[in-house]
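Hello support,

Our group uses your service weekly, and this is the first time we've seen a run hang past the timeout. The protein is AIP/AIPL N-terminal FKBP-type PPIase domain-containing protein. I'm not sure whether the cause is the sequence or the server load. Input pasted verbatim:
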Amino acid sequence: SMDEIYLLNVQGVKKKILHGGCGELPKFKDGSKLTFHFQTLKDDFERTVIDDSRQAGIPMEIIVGKLFKIEVWETLLTSMRIGEVAEFWCDAIHTGMYALVSKGMRRIAEGKDPLEGQKHRCGMGNMFDYHSTGYADLDELQRTPQPLIFIMELFKVDDPSSYRRDTWAMNKEEKLAVVPVLHREGNRLVLLKKYREAAEKYQEAVICLRNVQAKEKPWAEDWLSLENLITPLVLNYCQCQLELGEYYEVLEHTTDLLQKNKENVKAYFKRAKAHAAVWNEKAAREDFLKVAQLDPSLAAAVKKELRLLGERMREKHVEERQRYQGLFHHYQCSVGQREPGAWRACKAGAEIVGEQQIELGCSVSSQSPS
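Update from on-call engineer: The timeout came from a worker crash unrelated to the input. Re-ran successfully.
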């Protein structure tokens, strides 16, 4: 009945079935495509309508398991049968992204570029930047997070094997919309020191943007605005790779960034760290000095890095010298085996060298990247 309210086992969500669907609950798998219509209402006395996909004329599609920008939508839809119409009340904790998503959907319906107004700014900046969305009702939602009501009608659930779509089964708008979600997710994982998982999130975001960028004319304004979204993600990816010790990958990606933009201080800094880690002393020095030249406020940090680099290079030379000495000792010992005195002295010498190497080994390996 109308009054029947199901509390989905998700905090801050209530469900009311308005029209029962047919058959069993569908098999929702990762990659299933869900096609539905929705209406978004304010939780006020008038139940003010914010969006209605029927008016836009195109039903929505989302893919299960591919982080949609309003994550709760997947939860709502996967509780439904085909043909069901249900009303969901969602607390503000689930609706924070709604204004940004709605803006994108409205711009697409109007035949405009959903990224308009985001040019030359990093994606994270846009997320937290409460500039106008261009729609008064959405600006109000941005300023005052609030519960929303979604009325959903689920039409169709396509099995992943029954349809073919391009990368990650996403259209351009979905790709652009998922980027800030992946960016945030990567940042969260970095704070938990889960660098490998974070790198995967950044990489997936870069792939989404590169796919969209591939359809633009190189160096044209839209291409450049996408490049500006890509750069911070690549730098974050490089930071993860530094933490994971994948120095040659960092050298490759930073060099690629610097070919496009000679002024990128962060790219020089990360490349310098990678050069230092693989003992390219001259290249590391050049990059560190370039950092100080481009951004004098980093001069102190650069000075510290150059001092550490000098210490590490000296330690490496000492260690190598000792290794050769050790080999030379062993050679002498094996030749002079009939002279127990010389053999004893040599053995003691080798032990001392061994201890020093271990000590040096520690001081070298404890050099963690910043």
